[in-house]
TrEMBL record:
InterPro entries reported for this sequence: Cyt_P450, Cyt_P450_CS, Cyt_P450_E_CYP52_fungi, Cyt_P450_sf
Membrane-spanning parts: 6-26, 47-66
Highest rank taxon of the organism: Eukaryota
UniProt name for this protein: Cytochrome P450
Gene3D superfamilies: Cytochrome P450
GO molecular function terms attached to this record: heme binding; iron ion binding; monooxygenase activity; oxidoreductase activity, acting on paired donors, with incorporation or reduction of molecular oxygen
This protein's record includes keyword Oxidoreductase: yes
Cofactor(s) essential for the protein: heme
UniProt keywords, alphabetically: Heme, Iron, Membrane, Metal-binding, Monooxygenase, Oxidoreductase, Transmembrane, Transmembrane helix
Regions annotated as coiled coil: none
Family the UniProt entry places it in: Belongs to the cytochrome P450 family.
PANTHER family for this protein: P450, PUTATIVE (EUROFUNG)-RELATED (PTHR24287)
């Protein structure tokens, strides 16, 4: 083929390639127009008749995606199409062969890339693993997170306990607390419990904080004063060491704040249940509003199982034709920001572009107007976990 083209000379070769492409696209247009005539409906707005003429869309899309501004893309597309193309309705749930081809090197023949029996089997399998009463113990993680934040705040150095759960300090802190609770519960019989592990634990904690205290006390008062005023380097230790300059007083204050902070965060003894999480309305509002403005799946695509039409959004306008295998893109990101799907902003109901935690107090989305987990047969099966 290449030899044949080069034998024609550059101008003739170019004319032949250009001519063939023109015939190909013109022929394809006639075929599609014919199918649409039989199917009913009108063509969706055409952005470009071939990939070359549409190259600016791809460049723009890549640029916006890399700059985290995907939502601007839709507006860019609409300036080239007509407003009618904002139609979004429920369509069949076939991922389609094109989708499989594009994603299978990464996701293989999994639930995301397959259709029919294969998809249905994957869904049943994964679902069965998600629907159970397994509780996940997160108390320990909260505990260690609180310990980390508090040691960072107090001493300027975190014990980094999630990464080092077996660390001496973390174990000692846990042990001391455990014994303290036991002693309190058993009083006045606490003296019958051997307390050497309790005292050993306290020594371990002291060994950890003492170098920090010594280092701080070794600073000249004017340096300490300067440090305690610094936005970045100042710690609780720097501030407290300005006054007593006594290692024992400082040690006592630090351990007191350490225990108070950690207990305040993890003080609850009963394990939280799933129902408790659902009652956390502030958390629910935060998740809802975050997924409204920033859905984790901002764009989605479906392929038509058969020739069909999508109703036009404008009353009286003809429907848009969708032929078998056509890919239909839809965007929860764009849709969930559409002003016309919301009531007028008021004192109580913020503009839809704004992140507003009390939005759901005054508004409930209509079916299919809020789709961060998609809907229909391929709705996210992890939704109930959140
Ligand atoms: C905020 C968290 C999540 C969001 C926003 C989310 C969103 C979505 C969306 C939009 C889809 C539909 C994709 C499509 O239409 O092709 C989906 C499907 C799916 N999600 Fe999630 N998801 C979340 C968390 C989870 C979790 C925690 C799990 C599993 C434990 C999970 C498992 C799945 C599976 C297996 C599917 C495929 C369903 C199918 O094609 O039949 N998701 N998710």
């Amino acid at each position: 083929m290449f030899t044949f083209l080069s034998s024609l000379g550059p101008l003739n070769a170019l004319a032949l390639v250009f001519g063939s492409l023109t015939v190909f696209y013109a022929g394809r247009k006639v075929l599609i127009d014919n199918k649409i005539r039989k199917n009913g409906g009108v063509r969706a707005p055409i952005l470009a008749t071939n990939p070359l003429f549409g190259i600016h869309f791809f460049i723009r899309l890549t640029y916006l995606a890399f700059n985290n501004r995907l939502s601007d893309y839709q507006d860019y597309v609409y300036t080239w199409a007509t407003l009618d193309s904002r139609d979004l309705v429920e369509i069949s749930y076939l991922q389609g062969p094109e989708f499989h081809k594009a994603w299978s090197p990464f996701l293989g023949d999994s639930i995301f890339t397959t259709d029919g029996k294969q998809w249905s089997e994957s869904r049943t399998l994964i679902r069965s693993m998600l629907i159970n009463d397994r509780t996940i113990e997160i108390m320990d993680l909260f505990y260690r997170m609180a310990l980390d934040i508090t040691t960072e705040f107090l001493l300027g150095t975190s014990v980094n306990s999630p990464a080092n759960p077996g660390q001496e300090f973390v174990q000692a802190f846990h042990e001391v607390q455990k014994y303290k609770i036991l002693f309190t519960a058993l009083a006045p019989w606490d003296m019958v419990v051997p307390s050497h592990r309790y005292r050993k634990g306290i020594r371990t904690l002291e060994r950890f904080i003492e170098p920090f205290i010594a280092c701080t006390l070794a600073l000249a008062p004017e340096d300490l004063e300067k440090l305690s005023k610094s936005d970045k380097e100042s710690t609780f230790l720097h501030n407290i060491a300005r006054f007593p300059r006594d290692a024992k007083v400082i040690r006592d204050q630090i351990l007191a704040v350490l225990i108070a902070d950690v207990l305040a965060t993890c003080g609850r003894r009963a394990a939280p249940m799933y129902e408790d999480l659902k009652r956390l309305s502030y958390l629910t509002h935060t998740l809802n509003e975050t997924l409204r403005l920033h859905p984790a799946v901002p764009y989605n695509v479906r392929a038509a199982l058969q020739d069909t039409t999508l109703p036009s959004m404008s009353p009286g306008k003809p429907p848009i034709a969708v032929l078998k295998g056509d890919a239909v893109f839809c965007s929860p990101l764009e849709m969930q920001r559409r002003r016309d799907l919301y009531p007028e902003p008021t004192d109580k109901f913020a503009d839809p572009a704004i992140f507003s935690l009390d939005r759901r107090e005054h508004w409930t989305p209509k079916a299919w107007h809020y789709l961060p987990f998609n809907g229909g047969p391929r709705i996210c099966i992890g939704q109930s976990l959140l």
